[in-house]
Amino acid sequence: MEGYDIESLIKDILDARMDDALERLNQASFRDGYAAMIHDFLDPTLQRIGSMWSIGTISLAQGYVAGKIAELVLNKAIESGEASALAEEQGVAVLGNIEDDFHALGRKMVASFLRLDGWKVEDLGNDVLPRAFVDAALRLNARVIGASAMMLSTALNVRALRAELDSRGLSGSIQLAVGGAVFRMRPGLVDEVGGDGSAPSAMEAPALFRALKERAKP
C-alpha cells in the first residue's frame, strides 16, 4: 500500500529510535486499520529484519528492539478489539527455543501473532529441554508445540523433542510446529527433524497452528 516507508521504519528500529518507529506504525494503523498495517507494513519489516538477524548483520540489541516494537504494536492491536479472529479462542500453544538455541526474536514475533489470533501462549523461553516442552503441553492441554531454532546445529536438536513425543505416545495428539530461518532456507529439514509443519513467516504462524490443532487427535 502506498505510504508505507519500510526502509525508514527499518532504519528507526536499527538505530533504536523506538518512539519514531512506533509513531510510524501508529499513524499507519490510524489511517488504514491494524489489519492492513500489520500485513503490509509491520510484517514485511519484521521479515527483512529477521533475514538480517539470520545472517548476523544486526546485533542482539537491534533484534531486541525489533521484537519489543512488534510486541507493543501487536498487544495494542489486541487491546483495540479490531482483530475479528479474537472472537474465537484457539486454545493453548506452547512455544520455546529448542535446547541450546538462544535466538528469541522469531519466537517472540510468533507469540505476538498467535495472541492476536486468539491463542493463549505459554512461552517457555530459550534453551528448552524436550521434556519441558512436553510436560508444559500436557499440563495445559495444548495441542500444538512450537519449537524455534535459528541455526542448523540447534535445529537438529528438534529430533530429541520428536523422540520425546514418540516415546510418550503423544505424536498424534500433540502436533509439532517448527520455525526459524534455517527451516526457510532448507524446507526438507522440517521432515528431517520430525516436524509436523512450518510457516514461512511469523504472520503466517496462526494459520499453521490452526491447521495442526485440527489435525491433532483427541
Question: Can you tell me about this structure?
Answer:
This protein has 218 residues and is of the alpha/beta class. It has 2 domains: 6-82, Methionine synthase domain (Methyltransferase, Methionine Synthase (B12-binding Domains), Chain A, domain 1, Orthogonal Bundle); 87-215, Cobalamin-binding domain (Rossmann fold, 3-Layer(aba) Sandwich), CATH 3.40.50.280. It contains 11 helices and 4 strands; from the N terminus they run ααααβαβαβααβααα. The protein has helices at residues 6-14, 18-32, 34-54, 60-80, 105-116, 130-140, 152-155, 158-167, 181-185, 189-193, 205-215; strands at 91-97, 119-123, 144-148, 175-179. It has a 4-stranded parallel β-sheet, sandwiched between helices. α3 runs antiparallel to α4. The protein is globular, with a radius of gyration of 17 Å. 44% of the residues are buried.
Features:
single chain, 4 strands, 4-stranded parallel β-sheet, alpha/beta, Methyltransferase, Methionine Synthase (B12-binding Domains), Chain A, domain 1, 57% helix, 218 residues, Rossmann fold, globular
